Amino acid sequence: MGEYRQDLIDRAARDHVLNASEIESLLTDDEAEKALAAAADRVRQEFVGDGVHLRGLIEFSNICRCHCMYCGLRCDNSKIERYRLSPDEIVELADKARGYGYHTVVLQSGEDLQFTAPVLCGIIRRIKAMDLAVTLSVGERSYEEYQAFREAGADRYLLRIETTDAALYERWDPGMSHARRIQCTLDLKKLGYEVGTGTLVGLPGQTPAMIARDILWYQQIDADMVGIGPLIPNGDTPLGKAAPGDWHLTRRMVSLLRLLLPEANIPATTAMETMVPHGREVILNSGANVVMPNVTEGDFRRKYALYPGKICVADTPADCRACMGGRIRAMGRFVAADKGFRHHGRRRQDDERAKVCNH
Ligand code: SAH
Ligand code: SF4
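Above: inputs. Below: predicted complex with S-adenosyl-L-homocysteine.
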């Protein structure tokens, strides 16, 4: 078994191809975890280098029209205190993010339709004028709206598929259509966004075979970014008593993603650190190359409660920037000083050090 396992990992690291049953066998193999992480770390170094891209996350509204059964922002949750930042407040946070040395901001919210396309486009234009890359994560919109955001200057879009199993998706995201989610993802690709997708690991009823198919789908659509995290049960939602997602399975999935999508930008997500202290370092050493520190201020951090136990809710954006910068340097990596667009092909050794940021 040991030799077969190592052969599979070596083959994945060399050819970046495995079939569904091979992926599944590694996902479910506890003993493969260290070797997978080591191989993914090497492939990460070779394709995207030692730079860690920091994206400043602005959680600008926790108002949502959807009913996702796991998420604290779902419209049926009456316990959460709702808020919505004004366009001026959002632009001001982006300006501060630039001051902390970020080169990208991620504008994330519930599906809040008060942010119409013209309103969001105005915000995007003002932030683009500051020479920041803009990533949106505001859920499902029409093709025309995605087009308008793109024309206003948005560079990237995060919309996790959550699971590629249509029945499982529609069970836990009632009222939503899996076919529509796929269409949104393909629309975003067609419009020239860098597209981020990803899996919510641990949805009740999800199997390793489904997760293996998720990875193959990410390869098939040539995902630019893949963000995954374990389910953290939220007591104010119908999945409050579900088992948490398996942290180790999630780690093995990150490593497999790096082996099979070597050029992708892969974040070490906040949910990984909510479950395990210093979880983001472990994930950065298991294939990931992106971190999204929070730049939301004050009480809004606490109120943006997708799940309980969220880290750093009492910290300031400056604290988070300094903390992550120090932790990345302590790992022997560096904070990348460019906007962090997707690499194509193997990294050129000579550009790497030119991009070091000394913040
Ligand atoms: N409304 C947008 C963006 C905000 S939600 C959207 O849904 O795309 C961002 C992500 O948070 C979701 O894709 C989901 O995977 C994750 N999330 C929500 N609730 C969670 C929970 N209880 N545990 C872990 N991740 C969760
Ligand atoms: Fe809304 Fe996103 Fe939460 Fe679903 S996951 S309820 S769309 S914020």
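The radius of gyration is 19 Å.
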